[in-house]
Amino acid sequence: MASIELTAIEIAVHEQSGTAMLLEARDLVSSNRVSVVRRDDDPTTVLGTVHTDQGEFTAWVRLSPERPGNPDVRQCSCGKRKYCVHVAALVLSTEARTRPKLPTAPEPSLWEAALTQVLKPATKASEVSPAPQNAQIALQFELRADAEPAAIDVRLVIPGTNGGWVRSTASWTWLNYTDHHLRRVPREHVRLLKEFAGLATGYAPHINDRHFTLTSITSSRIWPVLQEMKASGLPLVMSGRTAMPVRVLAEPLTPRIALRRSSAGIHMEAVLAGDGTDVEAPFLPIADPAHGVAWHPDHSSDQLSLAALAVTPPEVFRRLAHNGFPVIPAAGEERFLTEFFPRLAEQIEVVSPDGSVETPQPLPPVIEFTITVIGEHRVRLESSWIYRLGKASRREPVRLPYGKTPAKRNVAGESAVLEQLRPILGEVPGLLEPTTRGLAPVPSCTVEGMGTAHLLSQVVPALRDRDDVLITLVTGESELPEYHESHDAPVFSFAPSKADGGDSQDWFDLAVTITVDGRKIPFQELFLALAQGEMHLLLEDGLWFSLDRDEFHRLAALIAESREIMDAPEGSVRIGRFHSGIWSEIDDLGEIKGRAAGWRKSVQTLSQLADLPEHKLPAGVEASLRSYQEDGFRWLATLLQHRLGGVLADDMGLGKTLQTLTLLQHAQERKISHLPFLVVAPTSVIGNWAHEAQQFTPDLRVAVLDATSSRRGYELSETIEQVDVVVTSYTLFRLEFADYRKFEWAGLILDEAQTVKNHQSAGYRCARDLSAEFKLAVTGTPIENNLMELWALFSITAPGLFPRAERFTDYYRKPIEREQNPERLAQLRRRIGPLMLRRNKEQVASDLPERREQVIELDLAPKQRTIYQKYLQRERQRVLGLLGDLTRNRFEIFRSLTLLRQASLDVSLIDPVHANVPSTKLDALLEHLAEIAAQGHRVLVFSQFTRFLTRAAQRLDEAGLEYCYLDGKTRKRAEVISRFREGDAPVFLISLKAGGTGLTLTEADYVFLLDPWWNPAVEAQAVDRAHRIGQTRNVMVYRLVAKDTIEAKVMALKARKSALTNSVLEGDEIGSAALTADDIRGLLD
């Protein structure tokens, strides 16, 4: 083909624009459609107007002598990026068209130039873009460059008959009638079109638009929708004949300012940076503020690219992109980089892509803490980041904003600083807060008290020498004390306070004085800090010391406990003469002064039996006491000497009665009091007291009152002056309490004291209210069900040892029984320890014969089993319906449980109609008794149910076996007991309530327990009627249990319920003895 001659400038323009654009530009110049204005003061700057069929466009360029045809800076109002036909025409028009033509040569020839263009990687199609096969609809994007401002319209188009896409009647209104217009369009495409339309219209209920303006859609959610459209195959195309596909970038672009150096100076451009993509102006923002952009790749109007923006461009970026910026000459470069560059960098990232401009590098971030003194150990702390660049600096909030991290933050640098500061700032609570990057300083907070002391004495000195921390201290008119810590041990002293007048011998108010580092510590401040769980105490002058010391913990516990017992004056501890444990702990803390010191010495001897004062055994005791019984007597005598009550809680069978009689003999011989002692015991035990008193202390004058005054024929007053000891029953004591309370007593002895364990009973109130100088509870089971029973005994014998019932429940019972708090249990044991003596047989009676226990499980006979199951189903439903209010329905629940226990024994106990149904348990009992009696052994048989004992008696009569019988209705109990002990009857039938306590029946060496119960103490008492001091043979204990009945569940429950008693009395693991709703459900499973 023939060569076309090109000028040098045309060759340069051709390299930038390509053949088609060059030819179009030449046509514009040759047809005089370009008006050129050259600035006189800057000949390199050219401004011109280009007149085209599409309208007028204004372009300006800055020419470069080194690169003719490729201006350093170019802008055009058409909005196209890089080189456009208007810029090309303006450049061509600046050259004289009369220059000589270059010789025709093979290069650069038009064909070679065209071929070069062809060989470049294809970026657009030259033919009409056909509609994808089977595509029924597409999204068409039309750039309206002539609009003000420029805009992009988005329409629905459909395949044309000759290929390509046509608008035809397609409209967004079709979405209102999808079944009609879009029935052949894939559902996914319809969904995406509706989502796009919803974002464009604000989800209007009805769409009336034929097209939407993309640049007006304010929601950034269009970008994931456009991505889904591309992924689903929904065509996105340009308008016009070529209908080129619209490109949607997968990743958002980030606005930046690019700096490049030329011989003229520093050029500054607005660019959009992405992953492998840099887009230079011009570009069209989508929405205002912009969340995306559109542009023509390679300045080709046939192509369109879209992308989301990672951040909203700042105003400076928008101005540069729209207006351009003059070159910064070499003379102004230093000022730009030192003064203007930092201000620019505050708003947007500034880079030099080619490295031609060396920009100031930001210094590592510094964190500033401003501390403003408020006063009274209070300061205000504010924190922020400081960024320094050149001569400028800026502040950033210490918190990162929610969502995306701003580009202008050096997050890695901040994190490095925080990593170093966390251990230091963590010393003061409240200075750090959790964030997405771990713990970080709070923006502002008020620090007070010990926080201020730690901050100023430890944290600030540790931060001052760091290069990445700035400390600013604002004191104003407030003065800062010199904060320092004292490590000296506190010194305590206790002395009677001024409020303690000294008249009472029962209570002492001890004023507490504490000194640290020579300073007297205000008690109220100290106690308040201890009560609130503070770890340190800060004084007004800045001295502070740790409260996490054993001495302070013990003092706080003592004060709290003493105030639970009785309110005390401020700054003092009120304790009573019964609190020997507290006296000992106070003595360990510090010096006790005044008359309180003498009392402390007198009660501390109760702590250890080995340290008890020597009390000689009274001469009138005609018995050989074992060593542990002598210790018990000395302990009792010490209590009596100091008018301290207590609880003798030795295990059953260890001779508690003998120890008590020895004490009474001691009081008589030493003439400790001219008043008599009153002994109250169960009715079944009164005779035993008279018997043992006659046997072991015959010199004691003992009167037994076993009937009311009207029945015995004389008044109490006629007896009291002639005896040393009066013995009566709990029933008579309660009935005739009005007579007993008329007199003063040397002491009150409560035998089997668990009888008054219920603090709401009349018997308890009588024992509590009786006036006596000394009160002693004697019981092998001080706890059977719950800790309130222990409280009841000590409220009688040692009033004031514990607080009132409600406080005791909150302070001791709930923490121990419900929460199983070992510390509170240990405290309870310390308090009762000096006033309760408890020894078990394993500890002190190693020579006692062995006791063997065996559970005999019995299968109910078929007929009894059938009837039992019938009752079980009925009562289970009944009880489970009542457990919602256990307290209110307790009586009905226990009635049902008792019925099932009876059915396990003998169904005729429930209904006489079953009298002919055999009792499996009675059959087994008679078989064993016959064998045991034949071998010459004697047996105690216990049951809670007297009717069952009656049935057993009938069977014994039928078998011809002799027996004795004792229950609550038995008259002349002493005679019945004596008949068994001195006679030959091999069997003794005994009800647990009437004979389970207080009896000595060592003549028997076999024990049968016919019906198990969940109170293990009751069964243990029954067994100990035979297994006690005086027994010379091994004792065999049999428990008869009906398999697969409530009795089997009771056995398992009983093992758990014994844990509470053992934990308090023996120091075992904590348990609970109270029967709960869950326990009852378990019995019925």
From TrEMBL:
Entry keyword annotation includes Zinc: yes
Keyword Transferase applies: no
Record domain SWIM-type: where: 61-95
Record keywords: ATP-binding, Helicase, Hydrolase, Metal-binding, Nucleotide-binding, Zinc, Zinc-finger
Domain Helicase ATP-binding: 637-800
Protein's name in the database: DEAD/DEAH box helicase
Residues annotated as domain Helicase C-terminal: 921-1071
MF GO annotations: ATP binding; helicase activity; hydrolase activity; zinc ion binding
Superkingdom assignment: Bacteria
Organism: Kineosporia babensis
PROSITE patterns reported in the protein's UniProt record: HELICASE_ATP_BIND_1, HELICASE_CTER, ZF_SWIM
